[in-house]
Amino acid sequence: MDSPYAIEMLHITKRFPGIIANDNITLQLKKGEIHALLGENGAGKSTLMSVLFGLYQAEEGIIKKDGVEVQIKDPNDANRLGIGMVHQHFKLVECFSVLDNIILGVEPTKNGFLQKKEAREKVMALSDKYGLSVNPDAIIEDITVGMQQRTEILKMLYRDNEILIFDEPTSVLTPQEIDELMQIMKNLAAEGKSILFISHKLAEIMAVADRCSVLRKGKYIGTVETRNTTMEQLSAMMVGRNVNFHVEKQPCHPGEVILDVKNMSVASKVHKKDAVKDVSFQVRAGEIVCIAGIDGNGQTELVYGLSGLEPLKSGSITLKGQDITKASIRKRSTSGMSHIPEDRHKHGLVLDYPLEYNMILQRYFEPEFTDKMGFLKRKPIREYAERLIAEYDVRSGQGPVTPARSMSGGNQQKAIIAREIDKNPDLLLAVQPTRGLDVGAIESVHKQLVAQRDAGKAVLLVSLELDEVMDVPDRILVMYEGEIVGELDPKKTTQEELGLYMAGAKRDEVKA
Amino acid sequence: MKKILKNDAVQSLIASLLCIILGLLIGYIVLLFINPAGAWDAILAVLKNFLKTANHARRVKLLGATLVRTAPLLMCGLSVLFAYKVGLFNIGVAGQYVAGVCASLYAALAWHWGWLPCVLFAIVAAAALGAIVGVLKAYCNVNEVISGIMLNWISLYSTNMILSKYKEEASHYTLYLSKASPKSILPGAGLDKLLGYDKVTIAIPLAVVIAIVVYIVLNRTKFGYELRATGNNKNAAKYAGMAEKRNIILTLVIAGGLAGLGGAMLYLTDIERWSVTQTSVPGMGFNGIAATFLGGLNPIGTIFSSFFIQHITDGGPNVDTTYYCAQISDLISSIIIYLCGFVLFLKTAINRGLARSDERQAAKEKEAAQAAQAPKPEDVPATEKGGEK
């Protein structure tokens, strides 16, 4: 049977509790083409690829290879079918050589001894054929990220994979390395390999892909030929035009400068580039400023730098005229900074503590809750927790003594928000405060943010949700690759324009 | 029934009891394997310990002997527990215990101090040893297990060296305190007469009081709040601005102090003398680890688990050596103690079992509800199946 398609995923539906991650999605990869898969965070790209790779089983839909239906139950099945993947975070043994990493798991042996000579010849032949120019004896931790990625590519080629999946391959590369990768991908396609290219960077998709399929919120939007489309059109397909809800708010009246960030840089934990590069901005009393951007463009590190979880590499932070660049986390907190963290399980809560203990997490040391001998004052703690539970409508099974772990995500988030807002801060850092919440809860969080603004607080919102970015703030700062590339007025801009900034297709020189 | 099973304390108790039964069972099987004739008697001998003798006065005295050794074991257990609540595994407890022995005996034999300063000196010395581990962990991120184990040996051989000046000429044991420095011996406060054994001292009630204090500090104070938060979620503790480094050091200092106090509690009774030629770290510290876990990581539970572990350790030598070689007693006690470490594992297993039975029940109820409502019941299982995947 001769099919023009290397892989077809037909009508794939994959549900998780409470969410449909993939809703009737069809993806057809032609032989020898580069096919881009475009979508926002949470659009369902990763889930779809996990289904293809056998990490998840779809509830509905079928997968065909070369026109024949196949069952992919685990990654070994995927490997046997010639499907290989370069993950966003490389899966290499740091202290092994390039060659050792490539043959790992499929080592050629004779009587139990490694036969590296043949392996080396095959690797060098492949490297020459596709212009990868790797040194097989270099140790992984000594070589650049670009070279590490080529090692991953060689791993797929060494296994004779025909279908190559690249998951956000350019996010860790320098511009030159990106150009080289594009060339490599074209070479691979020219030799008959079929490539799936997962990305949300429009320029790269336009440069390298033949066709592009777009997902949005778990749904399949469409497939277009890149030569017949524009970045604007792709951007519109990616973000959609429908705005779900609107936040009611009065015009803002910014007051004095509360937060003043100058030339801030924060080192990255993952690679050698700085995660935040020379960023300057201000947040005034009575306004909501939103840091927008696609996940992984330095927002997390920016917040870590502001809250004191990570030291700055350079630059300064001033809170209400007080230099807090080197201040401890506790000092920042008592000086008027509240922080709704991005990851409520990692930072926001001690899950094994009861709710009341989590409510005082930022204030337990204050005389209100601890007596002079260092004993916790149990009654005031209980009463305080009960007050917050009532005021902020935090629902839990057993009230103040409910273990935080047993609460729903929305109520956990409400508890954190209650704690941070009730601290009466001057600056509220709200990082993805609505992540994982349902529509009702989102609305209430947005109302609380606006209420804080109207009470004259400075609010810095970090969000990945386009609707939230368009609706809640008074000003938008777009972050791309660690830099602020644009300042937008949410009343004047469009989602399409925002999308272009977020995808790095457009940038202004922003003054501090 | 299920509600009771879900209670944390009940789970700990069940898991601990299961561990003990499992340990006894495996010990019994090992005995059967070696020599089936005496297996049952041997297990009974281990379990009975002081109960084996018919003479009431002697029975009480033997109970006293077990209690004297339970006190230091409880302190070692509390030391491990305290560090564990902060997410640290204080395997250096054995060395800290030895440091306590060394300091208390040295103060007694060299300086003829009274018992209280001897005890305090032991606490300080062992706390200092704990501080080394703490500082290395906090500032150089040296794993506390590695540095703790290394220090165990340093502590042991230093102690041998320091105390060799104060040993009997004819043997390798240190001098009797009753002869060399009677005022260094812990006071009996009437307990010695009550149990008819002169080695019984205030150490026993003191250890119990300290267990209660540890419980209060961990559960009722700001310090305990910080420590447990750090142990449960290091990132959240950092986010809340808790001084992580200071807390790590302080925790290991306190853990060391507890173990050191344990050393003083045993050796200042004169029930045992230190052998300056010993080449292995005393098992007391390591048994403390088992006591902690068997006690369900609860200071009060550790009181009872310490007693049980000491009970079977003391019962070991009662095994009939005509059937078994002399080492069997230690082997059987250590098998049981080893199994005591499985408490957490069993607790997890209980929880998993409960969760699964809950799920099954919920699924059944859902199915029943849907079957009652749905016009076409044959559709229901299909969607159910889909949902579970």
Entry keywords:
A: alpha/beta; Rossmann fold; six-stranded mixed sheet; B: 389 residues; ABC transporter involved in vitamin B12 uptake, BtuC; 0% strand
Account of the 3D structure:
The complex is a heterodimer of chains A (512) and B (389). With 512 residues, chain A is of the alpha/beta class. A 6-stranded mixed β-sheet of chain A has the order 6-9-10-3-11-12, with helices on both faces. Chain A has a 6-stranded mixed β-sheet with strand order 18-19-20-15-21-22, sandwiched between helices. Chain A has helices at 45-52, 75-80, 98-103, 116-129, 145-158, 175-190, 202-208, 231-239, 299-307, 329-334, 344-348, 355-359, 378-391, 409-422, 439-454, 466-471, 495-502, and strands spanning 5-16, 19-30, 34-38, 60-65, 68-70, 83-86, 109-110, 113-114, 163-167, 194-199, 211-216, 219-225, 257-267, 274-284, 288-292, 314-319, 322-323, 337-340, 427-431, 458-463, 475-480, 483-488. Chain A contains 17 helices and 22 strands. The longest helix of chain A has 16 residues, at 175-190. Chain A has 3 domains: 5-239, P-loop containing nucleotide triphosphate hydrolases (Rossmann fold, 3-Layer(aba) Sandwich); 242-336 and 426-512, 3-Layer(aba) Sandwich (Rossmann fold); 345-424, no CATH class. Chain A starts with a strand and ends in a 10-residue tail after the last helix. In chain A, 32% of the residues lie in helices and 26% in strands. Chain B has 389 residues and is mainly alpha-helical. Chain B has 2 domains: 2-341, ABC transporter involved in vitamin B12 uptake, BtuC; 352-388. Helices cover 74% and strands 0% of the residues of chain B. Chain B is built from 18 helices and no strands. Chain B has helices at 2-6, 8-34, 39-48, 56-85, 93-111, 115-140, 144-163, 177-180, 191-195, 203-220, 222-232, 234-239, 244-267, 283-294, 299-315, 328-340, 343-373, 380-388. In chain B, helix 4 packs parallel to helix 10 (203-220). The longest helix of chain B is centred in the last third of the chain and has 31 residues, at 343-373. Chain B starts with a helix and ends with a helix. Residues 375-389 of chain B have low confidence and may be disordered. Classes of the chains: A alpha/beta (512), B mainly alpha (389).
